[in-house]
Amino acid sequence: MAWIHATGGVQSPFFLLLYLLPVGAAFRHGFGEAIVASVLFAAGYTGLLAARGELLANLSEVVPRLVYTFLAAGIGLLIAREIVEQAVGRLELAARARAEDARLRLAAIVDSSGDAIVSLAPDGALESWNARASEVFGWTFDEVHGKPAEILLAPEQWALVADILARVRRGEIVEQVETVGVRKDGRAVSLALVASPIRDAGGGTSGIALIARDVTERKELETRLLVSERMASVGTMAAGVAHEISSPLAYLRANLDAVADRLRELGPSLSRERIDGLTDPLGKARDGADRVGKVVGDLRMFSGLDDDRNRPVDLRRLLDSIVDLAWNEISSRARLVKEYGEVPPVHANESRLAQVLLNLVVNAAQSIPEGQAERNEIRIMTRTGAGGRVAIEIRDTGRGIAQEDRARIFDPFSSNNPAGPGMGLSVCHSIVTLLGGKIEVDSELGRGSVFRVLLPSAPARS
Q1: How far is CA 181 from the centre of its chain?
Q2: Could you give the residue ranges of the DSSP H alpha helices within 367-445?
Q3: Which of these, 403, 409, 394, lies nearest to 445 by C-alpha position?
């Protein structure tokens, strides 16, 4: 105001500078400050002109100037508002872009995870999952969306699922629970689960996150290792039993032969009836000793599990030994028919192949109820198959295998024998595969089964 007063009052050009005051206030502080600045300018300016005696005489100029002051404040407010809105909009867009980028990165990490990641509603309904979950469980997400989480697990695990969900709803984190899941096709899958609550902004539980790792292969390897260790123990025990029996059995055979020879020497001095009455029991005892000797030989063959070398194996001799070992299982359940075709020796590890064939023969016998041997049959066949492979078939007239079970009959923990551990056929499949062969099954529920082992023949000796 001093400048305006010093430079001519109403004629001073510096009144234009005072328009900047409300505009600056509008930019700097906002609406309220811009009005106050405009009022102060108007009051100060009119007061100055009134003091100089110029107000009334120049009212036609002063009034527009005051109006322009308020207009300048209004324009300043509009411009400031537009600038601020644009700046805020750009900041919000940048923030949303960063958030979306972070969300997409997180979604990509989740979707590319090697573990199945599943999101559940608080009531346990499936809300979302990643690509790995579809691979593990065999379902598409559209097929399971909104369904209860129990459909992913075996029925005997449902109580465990209910307990896990209840604990997570209370805010707990449940770590490394091993359970058994079920794929869409019904196959079992071993899982290691981690379950944790999904928190909302208020800290409450808005959902449940499940991370499921497929540990089927690890569990299968562990079980096979256990089976291998057990078989090694059985082999060691069998070798020990065979060794302990061998010496007294040799003495028994030698003494039986000596008694028989002595009886022949005494023949002229004894009646024929008397000699027959002694030699017949001796002959039966000698036959029993020979049978024990054959079993000992079979045990020695079966105990060689630590020998990993493949060599030519005579199937006829091996199968006869298997039948001897399994005879107690077979004799009370079925007639045994041997149909050995002329086949070359196979290239295999004899002990491991014996393990496979013994398992298949015992399974065939156990699929038939006891006490009906005259009505049932176990047939063991050998023939030359396609491609020069040797085929071994073990047929039975037992209970058979349902169609839905045949696809997973060689999976770990899948068993058609209620008394079995569910690993025998899985181990058989692994051994045959390692021998370069193939194992197949044909079966019909109530009609029996055919297990077919295809093995490469031994190379001809030069």
Answers
A1: 8
A2: 403-406, 424-434
A3: 403
